[in-house]
Amino acid sequence: MQVAVINRSHHPLPAYQTEHAAGLDVRANLTEPVTLGPLQRALIPTGLFLEIPAGYEAQVRPRSGLAYKHGIGLVNSPGTIDADYRGEVKVLLVNLSNEEFVVNDGERVAQLVFARYEAIEWQEVAELSQTVRGAGGYGSTGTK
C-alpha cells in the first residue's frame, strides 16, 4: 500500500525498525525540548501530513521502550487518524511516572500502524442471538 506524505520536519520519514515490525516509528519535530512533569500531557508535533487511502486508518500507538523505561504513554491509545484528515500528525504524550521526562527533537515518540476497517450499517433488532457468555461483563470469563 502506498501512502502520500508531506514531510515538513527535518527528520527522515517514519520507518520500520525491523523486518517484521508492524509499526513505523514517528519522531518529534520540535524547535525546543518539551518537559513533561508527572501526570502532565503534551501534544507533540511530527511535521508529517498524510493522505491515508479510503478504507484504512493510521493508529498512533505508544512505544514500549518509552513506556517501560520512562512511564511515557499516549492519552488516547491507540489514537486514530482517519482517511479524510489532512492536518499535521501530532502525538498526545502523557508522563505516568513520578519523574520529569524531556522530549527532545528527533525523539521517537510513537509508532504508526496502518489498518483496514469496515464501515458498518446498523440493523436494529428486538433481541440478539444467545451465546454461552451472554451479558457477562468485565471479569466474567474463566470463573464458575
From TrEMBL:
Chain segments annotated as transmembrane: none
Gene Ontology annotations of biological process type: dUMP biosynthetic process; dUTP catabolic process
Known catalytic reactions: dUTP + H2O = dUMP + diphosphate + H(+)
A Pfam family: dUTPase
Source organism, top-level taxon: Bacteria
Top enzyme class: hydrolase
Binding residue positions for substrate: 63-65, 76, 80-82
Enzyme Commission code: 3.6.1.23
Biological or metabolic pathway of the protein: Pyrimidine metabolism; dUMP biosynthesis; dUMP from dCTP (dUTP route): step 2/2
Molecular-function GO terms, alphabetical: dUTP diphosphatase activity; magnesium ion binding
Keyword Cell membrane appears in the UniProt entry: no
Cofactor section: Mg(2+)
Positions of the dUTPase-like domain: 12-142
Keywords assigned: Hydrolase, Magnesium, Metal-binding, Nucleotide metabolism
UniProt keyword Metal-binding, yes or no: yes
CDD domains the record matches: trimeric_dUTPase
Similarity-based family: Belongs to the dUTPase family.
PANTHER family listed in its UniProt record: DEOXYURIDINE 5'-TRIPHOSPHATE NUCLEOTIDOHYDROLASE
Function noted in UniProt: This enzyme is involved in nucleotide metabolism: it produces dUMP, the immediate precursor of thymidine nucleotides and it decreases the intracellular concentration of dUTP so that uracil cannot be incorporated into DNA.
Protein known as: Deoxyuridine 5'-triphosphate nucleotidohydrolase
Protein source organism: Hymenobacter oligotrophus
Species classification: Bacteria, Pseudomonadati, Bacteroidota, Cytophagia, Cytophagales
